[in-house]
Structures are given as C-alpha cells and as structure tokens.
Amino acid sequence: MEFKTDALLLRTVNWGEYDKIVTLLTPQGKIGAAMKGVRRAGAKLNFAAQPFCFAEYVLTERSGRRTVIEASLHDGFYGLHSDLIRLYAAASVTEVCDAFALEEMPCGPLLVAAVEALEAIGTADGPPVSAVLVFLLKALAFAGYPVSAGKCPHCGKEIAGKRYFDMENGAFGCAACAVGVPASEVTYDAIRFYLSGGAESAPQGVPSFDGIVRALRLLRVYVRRQTDCDLRAGEEFLAIL
Ligand SMILES: [Zn+2]
How far is the C-alpha of 86 from the C-alpha of 60, rounded, in Å? Predict the structure, then answer.
C-alpha cells in the first residue's frame, strides 16, 4: 500500500550503514518510517531526513513496516539554523510534539501549531520566546492539559495582586484561595496575553521578555507534573537565553 501525507520530521536515528529511521508528525498521528540509503553522499531524499523538515511524504507500507519513497518540500525553515538559540527553540517545539502525539491519534491542530511556531522562530527579531510560549499553550490545550488565566476558579473573583498557579488543573487563582504555587504578576500577564490571542491592543499591553521566560519556566514544571515528560531541549533553550 502506498500513501501520501504532510508531515513534520521530529527526530531520526541512524540505522544500518546508510539508512535512517525517522519519526514523523502527520495529521493522522505520529509514525515511524525507514528512509533507505539516505545517508549516502548525494542521496536524493537527504533533505527529507533533516531536522524540522516539513514536507509531503510518500510512503509504502508492507506488513506494518513503512518506508519513505518520495518527498516534496513545503518548508525547511532554514532560518532556524542561523543561531543556537533558534535551534534549541525549534527542538523544544519538536520534542513537545514527540511527547504529546501518539500513533493513530489525530494530530492536525498540533501539526499546524508546530509549523507556525517553526516559521515564527526562524523569522523572529531577537530570541523567539513568544513563539515558543504560544506553541506550548496550544500544545497543552491539544493534549488535554489546558492552561487558564481568567477569574479565580475557586472563588470566582477577578485576580488582583499576588497569584497562585495550580499544577493540578493548570489554572491561576487568587491569593486568598492560595491553591498551588505562587506566580508573579508578569508570568500571569504573559500567559493571559497569549491565551487571549496576543493582540497588541490588549489592555495589559505586550508582555515583558522576563514575563514570557518566567511563563515558560512555570509551564515546564506543569508539563512535567502532568505528563512525566522531561523537556530537555526546552530546558537548554531557557538556559542559553
Ligand atoms: Zn480565589
């Protein structure tokens, strides 16, 4: 059987002398496939076995084994390779996809969010922290761990002053209820800003760099608590900023 699918390459491992096994995120789920001879000099499909390749892949499937036989590039996101910060930012996106996606689990929204994030990371002015935060919030919602930053879920009041973040349900709450861990106002503002679509006309204004970085740190802890995934590229990204 032969089939065609759009896919983002998440990771590869070398196999045999000249082959690779690739992990692809497709709208139908995460799949593994062999790419034969792709490590030979001048291999035609070499581009399709590179990190962050977004392409239409043509695969064959025989007795449950898939092989990539053709690919046509949508985007290689070459801007990602211009510096180490962008590379780690991009790797933090693909590692989240790898952690959250499963085989035979429809992943269309995750794929779209990841491709948009890689595009934004490759073209951002300065460290692409907001692109990573936007992606992480979408990915968490996709995976069933949505983050909320509205009124306090415990007492229903508007949150002012000190905030708390509840690692159990991903919600910010007020200081009087004090459920979860303390979170700074800038962290809350950054998450609220991007959850509401990131319009620059938002009343609280564009969040600070510090607020976005703090939000990323908080969400890393939340991801580990909820999924047991240790996001190493995400940690490296925050460490080299
Ligand atoms: Zn409350």
Answer: 34
Q: Please tell me the distance between residue 177's alpha carbon and the centre of ligand 1 in angstroms.
A: 4
In contact, 124 and 241? CB cutoff 8 Å = no
Containing domain of residue 33, as a range?
2-75
> What is the CATH classification number for the domain harbouring 21?
2.40.50.140
- Rounded Cα distance, 108 and 98, in Å: 14
Residues 71 and 134 in one domain: no
Q: What are residue 176's phi and psi, to 5 degrees?
A: -65, -40
- Distance from Cα 171 to the centre of ligand 1, integer Å: 11
H/E stretch holding 130 reads helix 129-142
3-state secondary structure of 39: coil
Amino acid occupying residue 159: I
Taking the C-alpha atoms of residue 91 and residue 73, their distance in angstroms, rounded to an integer, is 19
Which residues are 24's β-sheet partners? 9, 31
Interval 102-148: pLDDT, tens = 999 999 999 999 999 999 999 999 999 999 999 999 999 999 999 99
Phi-psi map region of 6: left, alpha, beta (phi>0 left; psi -120 to 50 alpha): beta
- The verdict on residue 86 lying in a domain is no
Q: What is the pLDDT of residues 57-109, one digit of tens each?
A: 999 999 989 999 999 999 999 899 989 999 999 999 999 999 999 999 999 99
CA–centroid distance, 162 to ligand 1, in Å, is: 11
CA neighbor of 129 nearest in space, from 234, 10, 22, 17:
234
Distance between Cα 105 and ligand 1 center (Å): 36
